[in-house]
Amino acid sequence: MFSSRGSWKRVLVAAGAAVAVAAPLSLSAGTAHAVTGMTRTTTLKVLASGLNNPRGITVLPDGTILVAESGAGDPNCAAGQTCAGLTGSVYAVHGGFQGRVVTGLASTATGPATPGASVSAAGPNAVVPDPKGGYDVLSEFGGTDDSRAALGPNGATLGTLLRTCDHTVLADPVDYETKVNPDGEDVHSNPWGLLPSGPDFLITEAGANDLLRAHPDGSITTDYVFPHNTAATGSQQAVPTGIVRAADGTIYISDMSATTPGAARIWQIKPGQAPQVFLTGFSNLVSLALDHSGNLFALSFTAQLGAPPLPGSLSKINLATKQVTQIPTGILLQQPTGLGIGPDNEVYVTNNSNGTSGQLVRVLY
């Protein structure tokens, strides 16, 4: 699912394998489940189920919810082999409609030991509408030009920003990392977060540990290389993930900072200023979202990776005071990955997102 360099990648891959044998929380679409905290009860309402490795969420002004699905790789892939298929998609929920509005996108996964078993895949990770029609889809990958080429033609758009209406590659972070390697460390790309920025796109690179700017001509430049987190146990790579922009133009970016509980950070980039750490003390942050009342929401994939990982968590942050409120979700969030806020401050999460039994849920608290 996630991938950065060296031991960090191996730990996350091992965690994903462990979860495959764990029993995830299973709720049917339209049902709800609750956890009572000190002062409130949190309820999950399942809006969609059976999603294939659901990742990032984008909520449009009219309330339409878009979910990037990383797919299930190649369904004919032999056990233990890694193959690319065209099972990635974009899922939409609007009013009484829900279903896939784009299919046939690149996806890669390792064939399961048992035929028909759920698989963890890499593929579409973030989606936004394109002014020319269709959608712009950023795919995760975790590798280099050579490792992508080895997957064959089905994997050609992995790790790229793709416009779906005409299948045009708008930017290729994998190729950029392979050729430029801005941080000078091992060559490894895993594009994760996507934010339109005027005519450009900002992309967080979880594998390369930098913030990229994709330009309309297809070129890419580096906006910022995130330094190692030396406050964590040892010196850990940043692994930037979520990215959002507030109404005043300030950008917030989350980083995972390895598996050390409490090591994850939130960065702040004010217009015209260099990035700086805004808040620390989180764990395995994977996504951010802003509501319309001056609050930032931060989603943790898990409190701590292990076998299996502990449940995820959701925090609400007052941007004016930096006060952090933990929303009591108990064991409800199991490997949550995407986070979105609706026009009336509805909170949406992709849950059970490591496999093919994923959910889109609304968090009521």
UniProtKB/TrEMBL annotation:
Q: Which domain of life is it from?
A: Bacteria
Q: Which UniProt keywords apply?
A: Signal
Record bears the keyword Cytoplasm: no
Does this entry carry the keyword Glycoprotein?
Answer: no
Signal peptide start and end residues: 1-34
NCBIfam families the record matches: ScyE_fam
**Protein name per Swiss-Prot or TrEMBL:** ScyD/ScyE family protein
